[in-house]
Here is the input.
Amino acid sequence: MIEVAAAPFPYPFDPATTALIVIDMQRDFVEPGGFGAALGNDVERLTAIVPTVAALLALARRHGLTIVHTRESHDASLADCPPAKLTRGAPSLRIGDVGPMGRILVRGEPGNAILDAVAPLDGEIVLDKPGKGAFYATALGDILRLKGITHLIFAGVTTEVCVQTTMREANDRGYDCLLIEDATESYFPAFKAATLDMIRAQGGIVGWTAPLAALAAALE
Ligand code: TIU
Here is the structure.
């Protein structure tokens, strides 16, 4: 077992039974003109973590972790999109509308692509998810079970929405979850800070957090 200097206490894991889950590093959330910007957010905060996520992917690849990339996305018909997700709020562009990077959050559109700097390599798992959590309406649970995965390391965007939802789903399913603090980001600094706190509070009630340097020190 490898042990990461994490909070609220050390995180032990075996790379052979651990997957890195990179959540929704899509142009739609990170680049101007996408869904994140349409919701009124400043996307520059998210752009800043791209090199750290790329370094985390390189580390995970060197050590043979299973790698899963997710995309928040919908079928072109939007039949898999809950009505509330389509209609709630007042974004400048709604899911399915045509924006500068194609139809917002629709599979196969340019904006739905994962950023080149953190793009999946051949053999890595790419999972389209219609919800905020990556277990809802996807094959993720079956994929991880078939691979014998027991531990999950998380990165991606946004910390309090899709990352935290997926961590909570995973924690309830029995996975030991570690969030890499500098490889995740929110449009709202206070929400990121609160999410890190609530994950590791009460004895790690959702899981662990650690910076990338701590994971690298444990592995290399
Ligand atoms: N709005 C926001 O913060 N996030 C999302 O809508 N999706 C993800 O977090 N991927």
Q: What stands out?
A: The radius of gyration is 17 Å.
